[in-house]
């Protein structure tokens, strides 16, 4: 337990150290700079949303160059808009890369007719994992994991579900027993008060037949800070208040109120590979060290073809007050394949 916890800050710091600083930037003719998120452009004006001043409207005639950390929809003259990242160029110009076989091209800022914000889209993934053995051991296991989310300008919604069931046969007695029987659903809503600071509401329900957990329900409310948000690196930390209500087999229900501390980080160092890590700590106000839950997972996802991927994940769950006769911790190594949409 202590060794696992000791590795968490180290991995966190290594990912943080490798993270790029993601932000759109406008450079003015007088040398001043403004960072934030480019919202739109049109009629000779550019709108950028900043942490300090909110949305700021800028006269493009006063802009030396500008850049975006993610692709945007750019309309040039009377042509249809193209999806392209924008990078800084020489004075009075930017560079765009419309895609295809054409190389990046330099574009005078005066020819940028409009920049359109992308409409929010639902994004998600579905992954399957399984295990089948025959011979000296007979094991069957099948599971799935589903996630979906949507990001608006000031709001973000995520939800998901997972379930894994497995059986194994004792070669001596020929009796079958359940080796895995775990399921969970969750939903979370974030509202951004600024570009980085947000409040959240979340709820999670779990069941674990092997751990004799009939159900556990955990609603939570709190605040978070989105340190980085972009196509290749995301990092957020959260602190809040959580209520845990759980019922084990042959035992009375147990509940407690306490803080919730969590963080999420994912990094795409190269396009086919994505690394991710999540940590959630839920202690009781009455006994921080004696009554708490710890949820940790880390993994890597490799895109193998188009939207199809393979996923290797390490999961660690710790319950300091488990059912009578059951262990406090559960560790799983999961290999699966899935589809991202």
List the helices and strands and how they pair.
Layout: H1 2-17, E1 24-28, E2 33-42, E3 45-50, E4 54-59, E5 63-67, E6 72-76, E7 82-84, E8 86-88, E9 93-96, E10 105-108, E11 112-116, E12 122-133, E13 138-151, E14 155-169, E15 176-192, E16 197-208, E17 213-229, E18 233-248, E19 254-270, E20 273-283, E21 292-305, E22 308-319, E23 329-340
Antiparallel strand pairs: 1-2, 1-5, 2-3, 2-11, 3-4, 6-7, 6-11, 8-9, 9-10, 12-13, 12-23, 13-14, 14-15, 15-16, 16-17, 17-18, 18-19, 19-20, 20-21, 21-22, 22-23
Keywords:
Porin, mainly beta, 341 residues, elongated
Account of the 3D structure:
By secondary structure, the chain is mainly β. It folds into two domains: 17-116, no CATH class; 120-340, Porin. The chain has one helix spanning 2-17; strands at 24-28, 33-42, 45-50, 54-59, 63-67, 72-76, 82-84, 86-88, 93-96, 105-108, 112-116, 122-133, 138-151, 155-169, 176-192, 197-208, 213-229, 233-248, 254-270, 273-283, 292-305, 308-319, 329-340. The strands form three sheets. It has a twelve-stranded antiparallel barrel. It is elongated. The two termini are 36 Å apart. The model is unreliable at 2-8 and 12-20 (pLDDT under 50).
Summarize the structure.
With 341 residues, the protein is mainly β. It is 5% helix and 66% strand. The chain has 2 domains: 17-116, no CATH class; 120-340, monomeric porin ompg (Porin), CATH 2.40.160.
């Amino acid at each position: 337990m202590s060794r696992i916890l000791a590795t968490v800050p180290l991995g966190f710091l290594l990912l943080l150290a490798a993270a790029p600083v993601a932000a759109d930037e406008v450079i003015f003719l007088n040398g001043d700079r403004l960072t934030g998120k480019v919202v739109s452009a049109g009629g000779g004006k550019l709108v950028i949303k900043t942490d300090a001043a909110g949305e700021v409207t800028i006269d493009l005639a006063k802009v030396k160059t500008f850049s975006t950390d993610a692709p945007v929809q750019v309309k040039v003259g009377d042509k249809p808009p193209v999806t392209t990242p924008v990078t800084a160029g020489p004075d009075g110009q930017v560079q765009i890369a419309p895609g295809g076989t054409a190389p990046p091209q330099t574009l005078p800022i005066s020819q940028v007719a409009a920049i359109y914000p992308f409409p929010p889209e639902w994004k998600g993934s579905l992954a399957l994992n399984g295990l089948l053995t025959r011979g000296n051991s007979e094991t069957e296991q099948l599971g799935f994991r589903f996630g979906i989310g949507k990001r608006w300008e000031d709001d973000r919604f995520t939800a998901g579900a997972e379930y894994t069931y497995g059986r194994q046969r004792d070669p001596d007695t020929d009796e079958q027993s359940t080796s895995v029987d775990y399921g969970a659903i969750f939903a979370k809503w974030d509202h951004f008060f600024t570009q980085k600071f947000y409040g959240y509401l979340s709820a999670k329900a779990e069941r674990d037949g092997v751990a004799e957990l009939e159900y556990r329900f955990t609603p939570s409310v709190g605040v978070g800070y989105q340190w980085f948000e972009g196509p290749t690196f995301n990092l957020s930390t959260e602190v809040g208040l959580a209520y845990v209500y759980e019922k084990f087999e042959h035992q009375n229900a147990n509940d407690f109120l306490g803080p919730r501390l969590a963080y999420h980080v994912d990094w795409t160092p190269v396009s086919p590979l994505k690394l991710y890590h999540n940590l959630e700590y839920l202690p009781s106000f009455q006994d921080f060290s004696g009554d708490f839950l710890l949820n940790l997972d880390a993994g890597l996802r490799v895109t193998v073809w188009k939207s199809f991927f393979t996923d290797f994940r390490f999961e660690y769950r710790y319950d300091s007050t488990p059912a009578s006769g059951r262990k406090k911790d559960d560790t799983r190594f999961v290999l699966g394949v899935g589809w991202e949409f």
